[in-house]
Amino acid sequence: MSDPLERIAAALERMSPVPQAAPDFAAASAFVWHVEPDRLVPVADVNRVDMDLLIGIDRARDILLDNTQRFASGFPANNALLWGARGMGKSSLVKAIHAAVQVNSPDLKLIELQREDLPTVGRLLNHLRTARYQFVLFCDDLSFSHDDEHYKSLKAILDGGIEGRPDNVVLYATSNRRHLMPRDMIENERSSAISPSEAVEEKVSLSDRFGLWLGFHPCSQDEYLEMIDRYCEAYGVQVDAETLRAEAIEWQATRGSRSGRVAWQFFVDLAGRHKIKI
Fold first, then answer.
1. Residue 230 neighbours by CB under 8 Å, 6+ apart
2. Cis link prior to 23 (omega < 30° from 0)?
3. Are 30 and 135 in the same domain?
């Protein structure tokens, strides 16, 4: 029988595994943060579209592009919250801008962080703090429910705590909600909390910690049709203009909404019918 101390030591090692080695950031331009165990998994082929195919968001594009270029060059840059209408290209813009900036700044890395893993962000920042690269942390579809305490972990990225946010890290988050939480939750805090104003301020002020707020709004029919025309031109799909317009309008009518996502879904169907790979 082995020594009881050895068995105890082995059990403790299984409970607290050896810290992972520093990741090889040269292996890819983008990574996904996973936990249990902590690791950064390289992404060989990022799912994204070219920035020229993003229609109707020119102002947000220009502001975020300039912010990212400054950050990649080692100058001060703001955390950014991209909020607003669903399907209007918030996450697509982040990925497209990273690709565009990385052409001249190959040391700019994109790291996707899931909302559920926000409590582990301190461990992630420890990996990034001493690296020679610049990192855009990307948290897609960020929002919080009434009993969700993850928003407190987010402050570690935005404010940095006693150590401060690393100079080589910036956070880009997307959300359908301007204040990252439902309006009825905010109103409930006002009506039921012992100190309503303090309870609301603690949660609502989280979005104030983003230096950039970029709003995305529903697109017009002309913008929707322009998106589809741009996709057809980029991928070589040739369709009679009147037929294309009629089919595109019918498609969005059956969906009950217009957005960049709906335009892309229509184009996927169109390309499939014309036997064109995209």
1. 52, 53, 55
2. no
3. yes
Could you give the CA distance from residue 100 to residue 65 in angstroms, rounded to a whole number?
9
SS3 43: coil
* Structural domain harbouring 104: 25-216
pLDDT score of 116: 86
DSSP annotation of 25 reads G
Which residues are paired to 136 by β-bridges? 110, 170
Residue type, 228: I
**CB within 8 A of 118, min separation 6: which ones?**
139, 150, 153, 154
Nearest of 260, 267, 258 to residue 233 by alpha carbon: 267
User: What phi, psi does 259 have (nearest 5°)?
Assistant: -165, 170
How many angstroms from the chain centroid is the CA of residue 217? 17
Neighbours of 21 (CB within 10 A): 8
Tell me if the pTM is above 0.85. Answer: no
Among 203, 111, 212, 206, CA closest to 166: 111
Residues 190 and 235 in one domain: no
Pairing of the two strands 30-34 and 108-112: parallel
- Residue 150 CB neighbours (<10 A): 16
Q: Which of 81, 93, 143 shows the shortest CA–CA distance to 118?
A: 143
Residue 123 shares a structural domain with residue 232: no
pLDDT in tens, 96-138: 999 999 999 999 999 999 988 888 888 898 889 989 999 999 9
Q: Which runs of E-coded beta strand occur in the chain? A: 30-34, 39-42, 80-84, 108-112, 134-139, 169-175, 212-216
Q: In this structure, what token pair is assigned to residue 149?
A: 């305490």
